[in-house]
Amino acid sequence: MENEVGHEIADALGILLKRTTRAQLHKQLTEGMGQAVDELTYPVLSALARTGPRSAADLAPDVGLDRSGVTRRATRLEAAGLIRREADPNDRRAHLLVLTEQGQIAVAELRARLAAHIMTSLSSWPPGEAERFAHHLRRFTVEGPFA
User: For residue range 47-89, what is the model confidence (pLDDT) as tens digits?
Assistant: First the structure.
């Protein structure tokens, strides 16, 4: 029985972690946000919001790209005024990517859209079940195989 549950969770995680699943979700969330914010740049904005200022090289593993891929996306976001580059105080050769106020507003909108999308998908769940799921999912990420 326990192994069956493990397989069921692994299968569900496989679907969630697929690049195509994430890209489809990001495309839905970014619709109408402007040319610079799309399924390609969303991960860079989201990661910067989670981690704070980072270099393209440091951000790359978090978004599943190499440094040059992050740099290309950052250039689009910078041109739109959503991020800026600042000198890295620890390395004069490097620059940090930093969310601007406009970028923070965009991230807040994207997070609100994601939360609403999630809540819509859970609307048919019995009372309390979504809250329990959220609690257990958080616990799984903190105590489970990703810890």
Answer: 999 999 999 999 999 998 999 999 999 999 999 999 999 999 9
Tokens representing residue 63 in the block:
């978004």
Within 10 A of 140 (CB to CB), how many other CB atoms are there?
A: 14
- CA-nearest of 97, 52, 93 to 71 is 97
H/E stretch holding 54:
none
Q: Write out the two tokens for 73.
A: 């996306």
Kind and range of the H or E run holding 96: strand 91-99
Backbone angles phi, psi at 22, to 5 degrees: -65, -45
> Which pTM value belongs to this model?
0.86
* d(C-alpha 145, C-alpha 147), whole Å: 6
DSSP 126-144: PTTHHHHHHHHHHHHHHHS
